[in-house]
Design brief:
mainly beta; five-stranded antiparallel sheet; 25 strands; globular
């Protein structure tokens, strides 16, 4: 090979290798010193996860904007946000829709990046009285997020928690019939239709298994799996994370996500990064008197974990 030919080829190869190495990193690594593999690590320690009680994190498709819930001692839930600007994440600050008329929690950016959902106790209209827990949404515009509005039927007539949506717009959430105790609440779905949304339907018993506190469903963008939490006698302790897979329109039994994720503490409010690489969830302890609360947001390699669980499906 002539020397004049070798150097251009070598230069192209070097650029390719460097670019491949860069692709392995993401914006999320700027918030944590270590990238998790088989062991869950605290995410954004000292920035996102602090001495307060943090849970339910969501990211924009480009992973350059995030929202999460934080509850300070003896205070209400509040949603905080951060943005990636000039290669650095901004400090957490209350979301643009924060209000003194109620508390907000459990945000979710849909897979398109165009809708931001969150739960709130703020008044539904111009009254000054809160009317219970409802789901609100903001729309992404060229100028940023729009002012939030409450969701309509079939979401406005019931308590709705932790709503997540798939790429086709179907919505999944936690709710219960009127007068049900929270421990009896389960996971519901509502399909997107041409004229709006269909009736809220209880998910199959494969999802709503014979445990309690079945809640906080995260639906995969393509609806190939669902991650949610619940308590079971054969679990690891408090609420655990479970996953079910959609196989030709039928949901598998729930699979406990194992000791890599679940502990004697409560693991809940799961979400997956838009690139599908990492699972995020809350791990914490809530005192019976609600005065002692410790909890952070954790993350773990989701690709490895999912492959491990899938190898057991059907065995």
């Amino acid at each position: 090979m002539k020397q004049s030919t070798f150097y251009p080829i070598f230069t192209l190869l070097l650029v390719f290798l460097v670019s491949c190495g860069a692709e392995k990193k993401s914006n999320l690594t700027l918030l944590s010193d270590q990238i998790p593999t088989d062991t869950a690590l605290i995410f954004g320690e000292g920035v996102v996860s602090t001495d307060d009680f943090e849970f339910a994190i969501t990211f924009s498709p480009e992973m350059d904007e995030l929202f999460f819930t934080r509850r300070k001692p003896e205070d209400d839930n509040e949603i905080f946000t951060m943005k990636l600007e000039n290669g650095q994440w901004s400090k957490p600050e209350p979301a643009f829709f924060s209000t003194d008329a109620g508390w907000d929690f459990e945000p979710h950016i849909d897979p398109t990046g165009n809708l931001l959902y969150f739960g709130s106790t703020r008044p539904l209209n111009d009254t000054i009285k809160a009317s219970g827990m409802h789901q609100w949404y903001s729309t992404k515009t060229a100028k940023g997020w729009s002012d939030p509005e409450p969701l309509g039927s079939p979401f406005v007539d019931r308590v709705v928690m932790y709503l997540t949506a798939s790429e086709n717009g179907n919505r999944y959430f936690t709710s219960g019939e009127k007068d049900d105790k929270p421990g009896d609440w389960v996971i519901y779905s509502s399909d997107k239709e041409a004229s709006g949304y269909g009736d809220a339907k209880t998910m199959a018993t494969d999802i709503n298994f014979s445990g309690k506190w079945i809640a906080h469903s995260y639906i995969a963008p393509d609806e190939s799996y669902m991650i949610y939490d619940g308590e079971s006698e054969d679990g690891f302790g408090d609420c655990d994370l479970y996953i079910s897979f959609n196989q030709n329109g039928t949901w598998t039994e729930p699979y406990n996500m194992g000791p890599e994720v679940n502990t004697e503490h409560c693991e809940m409010t799961a979400s997956v990064s838009p690139d599908g690489k990492h699972l995020f969830f809350h791990r914490g302890v809530s005192g019976d008197d609600e005065e002692v609360e410790i909890g952070n947001i954790y993350w773990i390699d989701f690709v490895r974990l999912k492959e491990k669980i899938l190898s057991k499906v059907g065995n």
